[in-house]
Amino acid sequence: MRLHFLTPALLLLGACSIESEPNPPPSTRFVYPSGVAFWRPPSAGGPAASNGYLFVANANFDNCYDSGSVVALNLNTLSTQVDGQTVTLPHLGSALPDNSLAFEDLASADESLVQIRSFAGELGMWVNPATGLPRLFVPSRAEGNNLHSVDVSLESNGAPVLTCVQGGVDCRNGALSLTDDIPASLSDEGRAGLPRAPSPIGVTVDEASGNLYVTHSEAADSPAKSSSNFENYLATVKLDNPTRDTLGFIPLSPAGYAYGGSDSVTVGAGYLYVTGRNFVAGVSGTVGGNFVLRLVDKNNPSTLLEPSLQSVFFIREARAARVVPRPVTAEELAARPNFVRERLYMLARGPDTLLTIDFEYDAVPGGAATQPFFRVVSAVPMPDGVSDMQLISRTPGTPAANSNILAVTSTGDSALSLYDEAIGQVVAQVPLVNDQNQTSNPSQAFGLTVDNPAGINAARLFVTNFGDGQVSIVDIPDLARPQDARVVAKLGTQQQRDPNQGTSVCQEN
C-alpha cells in the first residue's frame, strides 16, 4: 500500500517540475501566424537583387508555448531541395518555378526572434527616418492587452536582429499595457476604469503625424468587468516614443453614438476612417457590432461622423479599410483650394462585401475638415470571412495604370481574391488550402502584406495561413493580368492538428 501511495505523489512532483521548465516558442516554424510585414532596404539593389525581409507575428493561439513571438526572415537565405538540387526563392519578376516550392525549415537565428504575449493581432511597420531601419508594432489580446514594440537591425552579413524597444528579447517585460496603469490625466470624468483598450487587434502607422493608431475589438466597460457603461476608443502612441508618456485615447462612442468594437484604421487627408466589428460584452456574451464606419477629424478628434451605410446596405460589421486620393482638377482647386477627393475601400461582413466609397470634402491645413459628401461606388460580393486587404498599384504608363488591384484574404475558404478595379470584378481566387479536412482543420488565410515596388510591373503577396501555421507567397507576374497570379512558395511546416478537436498538436512536446 505504501508503494501505491508514494507513486502518485512522485508523479505529481515530476509533473510540477516539468511544467515549471521554460517552454519558449520554436524558431524553426510558425505557430498560428497572424500579422505580417515586408521590408527591402533601399541599399539592397531592388527586387532583382534582393528578396527582402519578412516579419511574422506568431499568436500561439492554443498556448502550446510560454508566449507568442515575432520572427524575422532574410528571404535571400531560404533554400530547399528539388530533385536533389538546392533551390532558392526566385526574385520578383524572374521566371517562376513549375511547381510551388516548400521552404519548411526556417531555422531563424536566436537574435531573429523575440517573445511577445500570446494572441497577437496585426503587425505594423514604421521605418525610422533617423536610422533607416524598421520598428515593428504588435498588439496582443492576452492578459495585459499589451502593445509590443520591436526594433530591427542588420548584421554585416545581412542577418536580421530583433530587439525589444525597452531592451532585451522578451518583449513581455515592460510592454505597454492598454488596460492597466492608465495615467490619471487620461481618465474619463465620472467613469471608473476608463479609458481602456481591451483586446487590441489593429495597428496603423501614420508617418505624417508621427502617430500609431491601435483599435480594440471589445468595448471597454465602466467599472471594469461590469458589462455596463460601454465605450470604444482609438488608442494612440508616438512612433518614436511608444511609451505610457505618449499614450492617448480618442473616444469613438460619445453621447448619442452606439458603442461597439473596432477593427481597422486608414488615414485620409482630413479624416481617420475607423471600421467597426462585433465585440464581446463581458458577462453578457457576444453582442453584434453597432457601427460599421466612423470618421474622426485628424485635427479635431472630438469631431466624429458616421456615414449611414447601414441604411443603404445591411452589413453586420467591417474589417480592413484602405483609402487613396482621387484626382482633383485645376478648376476644382481654383474654386476650392483645400478640396479633397478620396476613395475608401472597405471589407464588410454579413454579407461579405468589398465596398468602394468616394468622399469629397475640404481639408483646411491645421483646421477642422468640412463635413464630407459620400457615395457608394460599388459593392462586390466576396468569399466568406473576409479578413485583410492590400492595394496593388500598377506601373505608370501601363494599361489601366490609374486603377488598383485589391488583394483580399478570406478565412472561410482560405483563398486570396484579386479584384481588378479596371474591370470592376474579381478576376482571380488563388486557393491556399491545406490537404486536411477544411471543416475541422481550416487553413484560414488571415494576414496580408505586399511587395509592390515602383517601376516593376509585378507584385508579390505574403499571406499568413493562421490554421496551417504557414505563410504563402503569391506572385502576380504581370499586373496587366492579375488573373495569372499563383502560389510560388510556402514557408514553414504545416502545423499538426487534432482531427477531432481542430486544435493544434504541440509538436515539440
UniProtKB/TrEMBL annotation:
Name of this chain's protein: Lipoprotein
Organism: Corallococcus interemptor
